[in-house]
Amino acid sequence: MGTQELLDLLLEIESEDPIDYADLPFDEDALRELACCNVAELLESEAYRGMVAKDRELMAAATITKLVLENLVLNARLMRVR
């Protein structure tokens, strides 16, 4: 899966559940592209492609879990600041 495919999927998901970029001093499109590029590079890497399906699934689940936790922590911090 390439960067553009991921970007298209991300935009589709964001249309239903938008991300609040608030007043970040970064271009939203550039941040989206950077995230998609990083994931595409991982999916195309020799290490990832060399894993059996079960290990890839475990890696994906662990990564998703970490990102969800990170998001919860960041949102909790934002709620305390306001």
Polypeptide structure, described:
- This protein is mainly alpha-helical.
- It has 4 helices and no strands.
- α1 (3-16) crosses α2.
- It starts with a helix and ends with a helix.
- The model has no long low-confidence stretch (mean pLDDT 93).
Radius of gyration (CA) equals 15 Å
Strand content: under 5%
Helix proportion range: over 70%
Number of strands: 0
Overall morphology? globular
Structural class: mainly alpha
Largest sheet: none
Measure the end-to-end span: 39 Å
Q: Which residues form runs of ≥5 with pLDDT under 50?
A: none
The count of helical stretches stands at 4
Mean pLDDT: 93
The overall number of domains is: 2
Element-level helix/strand string: HHHH
List keywords for this structure.
single chain, 82 residues, mainly alpha, globular
Summarize the structure.
This protein has 82 residues and is mostly helical.
Topology at a glance:
Layout: H1 3-16, H2 28-44, H3 46-49, H4 53-81
